[in-house]
Amino acid sequence: MNKYTPTILTIAGSDPYGGAGVQVDAKTIHALDGYAFTVTTALTAQNSTGVKALSATSKAMFKMQLESLLDDIYVDAVKIGMLANTEIIEVVVEVIQKYKLKNIVLDTVLVSSSGKMLLEKSAIEVMVEKLFPLVDLITPNLLEINQLLNRNYKGYEEEAKSIGLAFFDLGVKAVLVKGGHSYDTKNATDFLVEKLSLVEKASLVTSYTTPRVKTTHTHGTGCVLSSAIATSLAHGKTLQTSVKCAKDFLYKSMQSASSITFKYVNENEKRKEPLI
Questions:
Q1: Is the pLDDT of residue 210 over 90?
Q2: CATH of the domain at 107
Q3: Exactly one of 221, 231, 245, 247 is catalytic; which is it?
Q4: Considering 44, 71, 99, 175, which has the largest number of Cβ atoms within 10 A of its Cβ?
Q5: Could you confirm whether 115 is annotated as catalytic?
């Protein structure tokens, strides 16, 4: 008898470099014993130095991708990454409601690590208003938190609860406050803030800490983390356990990263970069 393999739908951009987007999501999902379905929101031209260009998928094609899959198969969890524009977000909202999708993790991608805008500014408000209330978890980094909330948080532990409460006011059920951009140079601590009551402003804060891995190459780490969380949820694990498993998986992946050789920087030197 064949065992059941949990299915995870990733909705994100395409990264030809393979370090982020649907490519690394699929790698992560399959490494964690899930089966990945991928729907592309945009094509990008990028490499190890950053995003050069972006072209969003048409609304019609994007919707057709989703519906052709969801009319055919059952999805146990969903990871959402780069959304590109308002039209894409509106289709995602429609599809979540139509197919009653569950275990949804939203990685609030706004800007690439190289500084390229990945979500139109006019679409941010639509994402907050329409999509935030439909997902089970959002996973913003500190820069995204400050942009979304118009604050100036530094990443201290005592800020986690107030960050959570601010997102709860926007309809969010749970937020993973990622610590990659925090002040702490020794450890990377993420804080999961869960809403406990619909009436009172009650929340539960759980922290997850791993030592920092000394590298400047963090391209795609947010994609790996969010897709790993979604995969664990698809396996039936609780949100707290899913975050812990994903955090451990990312840390081990960064520790054991292999490298590839790039083209010559100069005549006498080859450049090698790690890959998660």
A1: no
A2: 3.40.1190.20
A3: 221
A4: 175
A5: no
